[in-house]
Amino acid sequence: MKLRDGTIVRDGDLASIEAFEFDNISFDEVPDSEFTLPAFGLPDLGNPDRLVRRDYSFVWMFLVAFLALIIAVGLRYYASRTDASPGAESTA
Q1: Of the chain's two ends, which shows fewer C-beta atoms within 10 Å, N or C?
Q2: Which domain holds residue 72?
Q3: In this structure, is residue 74 part of a structural domain?
Q4: Are 36 and 44 in contact (CB under 8 A)?
């Protein structure tokens, strides 16, 4: 139950609610150094402006494996066409 003066009565206990009114809220300028990872207790990751060279060796490995697969399938097809029946030549 809520009373007129803002107090709330629940289960026989008395709890009060206080209201605050603010006329002016101002914020200070915060420097950019406050928004770094170490400011929040995290380790620094280094300079973000430095370019990171990525390693694309896995792309080359997949490309070589794919080409080897294509060559293997092509050789298997060629071998099955030329070796269909050895010694069975037409004598027309």
Answers
A1: C
A2: 55-82
A3: yes
A4: yes
